[in-house]
Write a structure and sequence with these properties.
single chain, about 525 residues, alpha/beta, Ferritin, Rossmann fold, 9-stranded mixed β-sheet, 18 helices, 11 strands, globular
């Protein structure tokens, strides 16, 4: 008789329970979300390291000989952090409330770094900012709730907490965390297998999802990612390195300003570039960028860094390289010098796929965004003079009133549109079969009004070199949003007249104030 199988662990239920406990403790402390995030993530990391160490300790037991004792090098050779006794989770749990718990945990983190130079300087040392009561509750909760998980499950818990803290921190959270569903679509479309550069890497989500993609698609191949990241904020660099470590990944993450610094000599070097850069940044000192080979099409005259990023992504690719990145909607139609740069990019036949994403996918902005995909390897292929446009604004799952994401089958479906366009096989592991059949019943790419369209470079030129999917995709047949067009137009006209009247009144007040000041 077969032994009963162990009950399946719902890792997201576990993560949600731990978050609820941790958030309740934060609510009863004096700390802001930003101050609380790093210590909590550090304890999740420590529990992960302790779990791995305990497993390896059991595997190595009995392998000591009279001439050679098992030691630190044996753990590290197997990719496991070596934990000194003072850093073991069980020993921290035994500390009394009257002890200085904050100092004890700080010392435990310092001891781990001392024994493992690869993670030197990344673990938090801010535990003395938390009260003993809070630390005792956190240690016990992390130990109890995460006690039965292992391996990649810790990485999923870490990602879950990054997302939750990003929501809690609002705009600041968006600086280091890109929503996982957005990252997964970028990964599924560019299909990264080798060297990846993210010049705005935040907490490293692009790297984590790329590694997951490689694991799912290796098909027996010994594929391993080479990871290169840039991040301006020191605290975020540490978050990224912890995130990599908790997922069993290693890479080079440089604390540097991507506008002015190029630590990896990136021009023409990378197979893949992925990023979610900050949008519409002004005050970049373009005088420092003159003559920089990362900007082969010239620098934009507008006080806006969007096209500085776009050129940097393009120039980092090798002759077969692919890029996928998030960009402000305005960049698709920007005029002036930005239009001239966009013309040159399109003429280079590098723009491959453009995806319009609806509002409320990001924690920092409610506005819709666009995903851009470059492929320098499409020259000489049937699609070299074409660009695929996808309008995904009506595809989403509503999480709550203010947030949306994509379900796994929706991500797979959107990526399958790109696969069909490239004449590749579709994937159905995530459950996209029905969605695929509804739009592409014959299993080959066709334009679908309201969803996707392939445009030639000649068509794009006629549209003023716009890369806005709405210009090409059109509207689905019979699509009706239930709004009376005439009534809505009258409402909008009335609102415009009202705003114009208010603007005129404000202009008169300003003019009167100026006259008064001058007299």
């Amino acid at each position: 008789m077969a032994a009963p199988s162990a009950p399946k662990i719902d890792i997201y239920d576990i993560a949600a329970r731990l978050w609820e406990t941790a958030d309740e403790l934060r609510a009863n402390s004096h700390l802001k979300a930003a101050e609380y995030a790093i210590p909590v993530l550090g304890l999740i990391f420590l529990k992960f390291a302790d779990s791995r160490f305990t497993q390896m300790e059991a595997q190595l037991a009995g392998k000591s000989t009279g001439r050679r004792q098992i030691g630190k090098a044996d753990y590290q050779a197997r990719g496991v952090l070596y934990l000194p006794e003072q850093s073991r989770f069980a020993n921290l749990l035994q500390l009394k409330e009257r002890d200085n718990l904050g100092k004890a945990i700080n010392d435990a983190m310092a001891a781990i770094e001392e024994e493992n130079p690869a993670i030197k300087g990344i673990l938090p040392r801010t535990y003395q900012s938390l009260t003993n009561d809070t630390l005792v509750s956190l240690l016990r909760s992390v130990n109890a709730i995460l006690g039965d998980i292992a391996g990649d499950a810790f990485g999923k818990v870490y990602e879950y907490f990054l997302g939750k803290f990003a929501i809690a921190e609002g705009a600041k959270g968006g600086e280091y965390f890109t929503p996982t569903s957005i990252v997964r679509l970028i990964v599924e479309i560019i299909e990264p297998f080798n060297g990846i550069l993210d010049p705005a890497c935040g907490s490293g989500g692009m790297f984590v999802q790329s590694a997951r993609f490689v694991e799912e698609h290796r098909n027996g191949k010994n594929a391993r990612l080479s990871i290169y990241g840039q991040e301006r904020v020191d605290e975020t660099v540490r978050l990224c390195k912890m995130n990599l470590a908790v997922h069993g990944l290693e890479g080079q993450v440089s604390q540097s300003n991507a506008y002015y610094e190029n630590p990896f000599k990136a021009v023409g070097q990378f197979d893949y570039v992925m990023a979610n850069p900050p949008f519409n940044v002004n005050k970049v000192d373009k005088a420092k960028l003159e003559g920089d080979s990362r900007f082969p099409f010239g620098l934009p005259k507008a006080d806006n860094a969007n096209y500085i990023w776009i050129e940097a992504f393009y120039s980092a690719l090798n002759a077969k390289g692919r890029a996928g990145f998030v960009m402000a909607n305005s960049a698709a139609d920007a005029g002036g010098s930005e239009l001239e740069i966009r013309k040159k990019l399109i003429a280079e036949k590098v723009a491959d796929v453009i995806v319009a994403v609806g509002p409320n996918f990001f924690y920092t902005v409610t506005l819709p965004v666009t995903l851009w995909f470059f492929d320098r390897g499409k020259r000489g292929k049937e699609r070299e003079d074409k660009v695929l446009f996808v309008d995904a604004r009506k595809i989403f799952r509503q999480i709550d009133r203010a947030h949306r994401d994509w379900l796994p089958e929706q991500i797979e479906f959107l990526a399958n549109i790109a696969r069909l366009y490239r004449a590749e096989n579709v994937e159905i592991a995530a459950g996209s079969t029905e969605l695929n059949a509804a739009s592409f019943p014959d299993g080959v790419y066709v334009d679908v009004p309201g969803l996707c369209a392939v445009a030639t470079l000649e068509q794009i030129e006629k549209q003023g070199w716009s890369l806005n999917p709405g210009r090409y995709v059109g509207v689905a047949a019979g699509q009706d949003d239930g709004v009376d067009f005439r009534a809505r137009l009258e409402e909008l006209n009335e609102e415009l007249e009202k705003l114009s009247a208010e603007a005129a009144a404000l202009q008169e007040r300003i003019a009167a104030n100026v006259v008064e000041l001058l007299s």
